[in-house]
Design goal:
459 residues; mainly alpha; two-stranded antiparallel sheet; 2 strands
């Protein structure tokens, strides 16, 4: 009884002590002083105020932690020695944790733990396993808000390091790769959807307002970053995902796993993505999968096999079945791209464009679809107008589509720019425009293209 009383009494005095401490500190005033110093990056002045706020007013303002993040990142970066850098890096991590504790409703869990993992990686804190634990926590608890491109890359790189050390199974690497690729593509779709109507406005000669300009700029920055990260992740995966590794990996487990539908799906998907479809294993997987659970995926794989055998009409039949059955938007777009490619290869350009547009309607970041349409337009230049000038004008339209490919998919920027330049080189030049007297006029193409292009005004 006496012990219980002493515990209660100690708790009472501690709470009174804390209340008195807070009463002796004007939290609002200290936050204001702290923010003033932090805004101008006067961290020598800001740091002691930060310490006072953390001790006495940890829940006074979210700004404590927002400015704290910037402050400790800079202090760690500018540290004169390893000891000071480690001290500031640990303070940065503690800042993320305190924000989560005191402002849980205004802090994204996935973003916070992803940032902790990044800090541990950047400043070489903890073991590789401990860094991985932070990224896994971010991914498992709040995948939606774990979307920073660099954090995703470091997470994947960490798993690769552990796999190289024999501490992670290759299947785990593939599963994470699939999940990351899908997430990045979803982010690309979102940003490309924001950019596409604004790009079209610019192409039509409409000046964007400041808000639209900012939206387009941000979307293009994100698309560039995600393109780089996707490329980086593919490089990290490297030879691990080559047919020489995949086929033996799945061959080894096929007999034991051929009744496991999920395993069959994963194996067939990876072999299909890497075009490892000539090995007999792929046929065995598809046959087992279609027998166990006929689906969009098994129809897709059967289409690929038919295409490999030169049975184009049968391949199209399977691809169309796959598109009808597919419920995942990104996978449906991929099927549409395959259908479009089949039609393009057979010279059915109108049907091909129809399916490229279907794919773009789902996934606006598919710059390759715009390049393919541009290519078909260029191929049809001699068939879509009467005069030589109008025939060559088709290349302006092809160049516009090539430009758009680079805008929505930064990984194609260089290729798209070179392609557009090549097309414009074949289009009428200034002297041709002057001689034609058509500057500023619209030229319509009556063939399957069915679009028009405006002749540039010459200065």
């Amino acid at each position: 009884m006496k012990t219980k009383f002493l515990i209660l009494l100690t708790g009472f005095f501690l709470s009174v002590s804390l209340a008195n401490a807070q009463a002796s500190v004007d939290c609002n005033r200290e936050v204001s002083l702290y923010a003033q110093s932090a805004k101008i990056k006067d961290y020598k002045t800001a740091k002691p105020i930060y310490d006072k706020l953390i001790k006495n007013c940890p829940d006074a303002s979210l700004a404590i932690y927002q400015y704290g993040e910037r402050m400790f990142k800079q202090l760690a970066k500018d540290a004169s020695d390893d000891e000071n850098q480690e001290q500031y890096a640990k303070a940065l991590i503690e800042n993320y944790k305190l924000r989560l504790k005191h402002f849980p409703n205004e802090t994204k869990v996935g973003e916070a733990y992803g940032s902790i993992g990044e800090a541990m990686y950047d400043f070489e804190l903890g073991t590789t396993e401990k860094r991985l634990a932070m990224f896994e926590k971010a991914w498992k608890e709040d995948e939606k808000n774990f979307s920073d491109p660099r954090a995703l890359y470091i997470y994947f790189n960490t798993v690769i390091e552990l796999q190289d050390d024999g501490k992670k199974d290759l299947n785990e690497v593939f599963e994470l790769y699939d999940a990351f690729t899908k997430k990045i593509e979803e982010q690309e779709i979102q940003r490309a959807a924001e950019a596409e109507p604004l790009i079209k406005k610019q192409e039509e000669g409409t000046t964007l307002n400041s808000s639209e300009t900012r939206t387009l700029k941000n979307a293009e920055i994100y698309l560039t970053n995600f393109s780089k990260i996707k490329s980086g992740i593919n490089q990290l995966l490297g030879e691990r995902a080559d047919c020489e590794n995949l086929v033996p990996l799945y061959n080894k487990d096929f007999e034991a796993k051929k009744g496991d539908v999920e395993w069959l799906k994963r194996a067939a998907r990876r072999l299909s993505a890497k075009d490892c479809t000539e090995d007999p294993l792929f046929f065995s997987l598809v046959e087992a999968l279609h027998a166990a659970e006929p689906s969009a995926k098994s129809a897709l794989y059967l289409g690929q096999l038919a295409a490999k055998e030169g049975k184009s009409s049968k391949a199209l039949e399977y691809f169309n079945q796959s598109a009808e059955l597919e419920t995942d938007p990104i996978d449906k777009a991929r099927v549409y791209m395959k259908i479009a490619g089949s039609y393009k290869n057979s010279g059915s350009f109108s049907n091909a464009r129809n399916y490229y547009r279907k794919a773009l309607a789902i996934q606006p970041s598919l710059g390759i679809a715009y390049l393919q349409i541009a290519s078909m337009y260029a191929s049809s230049a001699n068939n879509c107008a009467e005069t030589t000038f109008d025939k060559r004008a088709v290349y302006w339209l092809a160049a516009d589509y090539a430009d758009r490919a680079g805008r929505v998919d930064p990984s194609l920027k260089s290729t798209a720019a070179q392609t557009a330049e090549s097309y414009r080189g074949r289009a009428p030049q200034k002297s041709d425009i002057f001689s034609s007297g058509k500057q500023g006029q619209s030229i319509s193409f009556s063939c399957w293209i069915g679009e028009s292009v405006k002749v540039p005004n010459i200065q």
